[in-house]
Amino acid sequence: MARIVMKFGGTSMAGIERIRRVAQIVKQQADTGNEVAVVVSAMAGDTDRLVNFCREASSLYDAAEYDVVVASGEQVTSGLLSIALQSLGARARSWLGWQMPIRTVEAHSKARIETIDGSALTKAMQGGEIAIIPGFQGISEEGRITTLGRGGSDTSAVAIAAAVKADRCDIYTDVDGVYTTDPRIVTRARKLKTVTFEEMLELASVGAKVLQTRSVGLAMKEGVPIQVLSSFTEDGAPSADDLPGTMIIAEGDMEKEEMERQLITGIAHDKNESKITLTRVPDQPGAVANIFEPLAEAAINVDMIIQNVGREKGETDVTFTVPSADLDLAMQVLEKAQAGIGFNRLIPDTNVAKISVVGVGMKSHAGIASTMFKALADRGVNIQAITTSEIKVSVLIEEDYTELALRVLHTAYGLDAEDAV
Amino acid sequence: MARIVMKFGGTSMAGIERIRRVAQIVKQQADTGNEVAVVVSAMAGDTDRLVNFCREASSLYDAAEYDVVVASGEQVTSGLLSIALQSLGARARSWLGWQMPIRTVEAHSKARIETIDGSALTKAMQGGEIAIIPGFQGISEEGRITTLGRGGSDTSAVAIAAAVKADRCDIYTDVDGVYTTDPRIVTRARKLKTVTFEEMLELASVGAKVLQTRSVGLAMKEGVPIQVLSSFTEDGAPSADDLPGTMIIAEGDMEKEEMERQLITGIAHDKNESKITLTRVPDQPGAVANIFEPLAEAAINVDMIIQNVGREKGETDVTFTVPSADLDLAMQVLEKAQAGIGFNRLIPDTNVAKISVVGVGMKSHAGIASTMFKALADRGVNIQAITTSEIKVSVLIEEDYTELALRVLHTAYGLDAEDAV
């Protein structure tokens, strides 16, 4: 017998037919003798509808009232799933954020969970009742509804799993697991049986949109194994013995054979970065600080940085990437700081993409990087920048080459599925 | 300076444009220096949408979870009205049922309010903040969401007005007041300046669908003056000096001239009753009890009763009315009890309507009734039954004559507006 937290996203909850299907999956999990809590999202589209109401009511809406409005979407689905489960003969009840309670910081519309009192929930689960919890919401110290920001239901699920000391957190989504790369681009992409928290963090943050990054970080901190699986592909529900999804676990929990499987676990891409180049910056101590200090003050996150030797002696070109959403702000900040920095021209470029290869099995970045350079050069893909971390090598390339680069690298690192179409 | 509770129904809250209009009316009330709390319904159609979700999820849905689902409609509008008010520069915040709290009995989907803690609300209002409260909802002793049944927001508004000791409860609806009769049928119907609680109870219960009956009873008990007015007809908002709606007040608060205005205040009609006749019932003590006891046990509300002398000596015909929704059940109950009662035939008739003339100024029922009989007889309308109460005379007629009877009586009692079209 295990204690399981299951989480279903908006696509799984979109309409009564799908909620009934979710109820069957949950019931089957409970029927194996497991204690079950379920975290639900709002029906797909419902949160957008509610957010738009707030925006129409006022462009400068009060975040506290926004939370009152948008939290209602998950309240609806948690009640409906309870009803659907009861109609299958299961005992179930909804637990709203303020009822447990799920305490968060005051920061409305982007709150962080502080503490969850899991005692009532644990008691109900031990008594054989399925607990249904609306994701994405909590209650502030002041007793008002808070929400965790879009996609926050994954984080709710992991936090609740930690609070009730669950053996596993199953995240049901519209993809059936974590793939070696985006299967819509690379048809030979393979579903991974396991990835480590660290790998998943890198894969999530660089563009594999399976789980909210925050939820993976929390799961790593709390030691909650996550399973990603689909509520759509299987006809029956997945059982405890036959797990078709991807397990996200600590590196120490990984089996030896898994560890040694390959150097690279997956390849991610991110088209949401832009490049800025400053030409003819004085090549002297402090010059680079003059560039990045004003950006940091404006809370702009700088990612890759390259410094080239300029055409004139004593000068250099500096290139770096920022999130595309911050590009305009970054340009303004730098223009204002031109005198202090002393650059000649400021050149923005949105036509770039970042490709990242990720793997805890990575022993030498040099080997990984040389495979990368060779494979990309053979197909005429130019590398504009490169960065590495403990378990990742990223390159910046022209955006139009993204799909080509993914396919080339997927083959180069031996990730292609043998039986794929 | 006064303390006012304002209530807006679903039609007034249907969409952001209308919520903005409501915000203007509320703001104007607050700008006169009054302390203001606002009770809101869900957007028109939204509660139906949520109720249908529950029904689709299970025909035997759990009322506690139903309450979780349907209470979300008012949660949304209370947040949106707060945002709309803030965008006009007013200070406003939403107070959900569990936040005040509004304590109700456990009876989910048809709860009654037990107590309201108005202290936090009063303090906020005294501090110049407009309090926005979702109608229709409360919290049970167990800490779960309850709802008051359809139309419950009127009752919420009156209960909150009592809790904060408001000077007045303004109910904004899609009609602009209480009329002498249904203005869609009688074009010469007049809007009433004042009616007493007792009159309104009779008018509401016999079919003038302006206010939920329960809310009028509560207002009478708590001594809360109600004003019914429209949020649509006026271009600007009504001010405290110029009240265009109908005031519902205690008889003692009515001015002398108002009291003496006329015998009859209004005429209501109700097409939702059906007639049942039992022929040849033994004309002996206890026979009538044998009829009505099984109906009472089945919780069927019997209204008008007439006993005719039958064709045979020692026998009588008994006729009475029940709500049309209970007709089938009443027929089943009576058929089962046929041996005990000893009737010959059981004749249902849905083709009846009840017409009621109401007025606290009524001194002699005889005078009222004779005017009624004469006016109806002159136009060939047959009276099938008659009942009276302290301030009401009701007759049962063939349903097809309803509109004719209303017009005839409206003129006969001198209620016609002089300047009507």
Q: Would you write up a description of this structure?
A:
Two copies of one chain form a homodimer. Chain A has helices spanning 16-31, 46-57, 63-70, 72-87, 119-126, 152-163, 197-205, 213-222, 256-259, 287-297, 327-336, 338-341, 365-378, 402-412; strands spanning 3-8, 35-40, 92-94, 102-104, 113-116, 130-134, 137-139, 145-147, 168-173, 194-196, 226-230, 246-249, 266-270, 273-282, 305-309, 315-323, 346-349, 352-358, 385-389, 392-398. By secondary structure, chain A is α/β, with parallel strands linked by helices. The first copy, chain A, has two domains: 3-252, Carbamate kinase, CATH 3.40.1160; 262-421, VC0802-like (2-Layer Sandwich). In chain A, a hairpin with a 2-residue loop joins strand 19 and strand 20 (392-398). Chain A is globular. Residues 234-242 of chain A have low confidence and may be disordered.
Keywords:
homodimer, 421 residues, alpha/beta, Carbamate kinase, VC0802-like, 8-stranded mixed beta sheet, 4-stranded antiparallel beta sheet, 34% helix, 24% strand
